[in-house]
Amino acid sequence: MNSKILNIINKQSLTKEDLSFLISLSGAERDYFLKSVGSKYPKTLGKKVFFRGLVEFSNYCTKDCYYCGIRKSNSHSQRYDIDDKAIIEAAIFAHKNQYGSIVLQSGERSDNTFTERITKLLKEVKSVTQGELGITLSLGEQSEDVYREWFSAGAHRYLLRIESSNKELYYKIHPNDDKHNFESRINCLKILQKIGYQTGTGVMIGLPFQTYNHLADDLLFFKGMEIDMVGMGPFIEHTETPLYQHRKTLWPLQRRFEVALNMIAALRLLMPDINIAAATALQAIDPMGREKALKYGANVIMPNITPTIHRKDYTLYENKPCTDEGAEDCSNCLSIRVEMAGREIGYGEWGDSKHYFKRHQQTER
Ligand code: SAH
Ligand code: SF4
Question: Which one, 117, 141, 154, 265, has least CB within 10 Å?
Fold first, then answer.
């Protein structure tokens, strides 16, 4: 069996069958696969890991995704919106601590008050950090004009997970309506790429109804779309959501975690030069989850720098880690963890996706 794994690892191009096989591995064979990828890829990509300070600045959301704890219809969610001053302070913290860049994330809103506020915030963050801090946005689906406005104001990367690239599965985890349209979501990714954003997407792993073949197709979707960055993590059921009713059909949490790491390692083989994030949801299952992801293919980690008082309310899923630690604790703890994983931190660097520059033939910062 190990020779079959090695054969696949050394192939020039991977088929759906190869990917599905790798993703489904368990036990000693899985260990062999992960270790082989882990020893191979730092030789080409380097040992560096990049930090993105994550600011989850609001949990107000106009959408109703069936998996998410902050969906509009969850009346038990304690809603918050961090004021601009605190967001700017978080950005200054990230800059001072040499994080290189931040991610601004929230529930989805597309009203003018919201979009104009983001434009203003982007300009302010750029100005107080002398243009040195990179900014990634993760604010859901917006119009082309809004994406353009935010790009001009200083955002240069955007994360929009496709959640599942299989249309049928997509509509099992979202309402089938105008606000949750599968084609529109793909179209948003294309628009982001056209504008010039480094574009990131991803999926949840271990969803109800999901199979290894779906996951293999997800990886091929990232490749087919020429995606620059991927963040994927285990699905973790939330009591106050419609998908909770399927909890008995889910893989055990530990298996979701294992398959998530298999996905990361398989994607690293398939797309050697993209950025892959070690998702926070990994840590909700295994305390060393993100570090394990760094060993087997991930090269980006997103320390949470949201002011602590609000962290417990950004509960996309339950059991979210580090909700009671201040940003300082978080950053100390992480640098030790990254070193333990045998990687180095790219302090003060934007850590842009090498794939993006290959596509655009530009010089890297
Ligand atoms: N509103 C934006 C960004 C915030 S949600 C958007 O939807 O794009 C960020 C990500 O959290 C989602 O893309 C989804 O993949 C993830 N997420 C939501 N609920 C989750 C759950 N129950 N388990 C694991 N990940 C979840
Ligand atoms: Fe809102 Fe994003 Fe959660 Fe969907 S996943 S309900 S858009 S925060």
Answer: 117
